[in-house]
Design goal:
The chain has about 190 residues and is of the alpha+beta class. About 60% of the residues lie in helices and about 15% in strands. It has a domain of about 60 residues: Nucleotide Exchange Factor Grpe, Chain A, domain 2. Helix 1 runs antiparallel to helix 2. Homodimer.
Length: about 190
Amino acid sequence: MREDGTTEADGDDDNDEAASPELAADDSGVSDELARLRGEIEQLSVAVATLQETDDERDQRLDALETRIEDYHRRGEREREQLAAQTLADFADRMLSVKDSLDNVLGMADVDEDTERQLSLVQRQFEQSFTSGEIERIDADGQFDASRHKMVERVSDDAYDEGEIVRELDAGYTIGDRVLRPARVVVATGDSS
């Protein structure tokens, strides 16, 4: 007990009452600070959400751009391949004319033996070059195929069935799956009239 007749516990109540206005002021300041911080958190949350949306939009634009670039590269590669194939086909077509002329000269009866041997060598070189370039002669035996043969004439011949190739007039060639020049052929009608 104290000299004034109060106990320490009683004295604490006095201190609490005296401190109450200070605590109330402190509570008010804390509440204000808490409200301010909550406002800042809300603003930051909105800013983060906005940045996330912006980031997502940027990622989508980047993905779209990457797709366009990949498509551009694929298209460019495909166009280069097509151009190379077309250039090779054009060159091969021109060389076929030279080969035809050579074949015609070799088919002549009045070519001397030495010239024929030399021309045959050139002819073999042409054929080897064509083979290495995947240029192949079209088979002109059997049934007529409009995708690989060009019918020049129809003849009646009992030795052949309807639509069967009787003879080849000019050789046809392919490069890969593409027909460079169809084989020009004579086709049987199948009737003997």
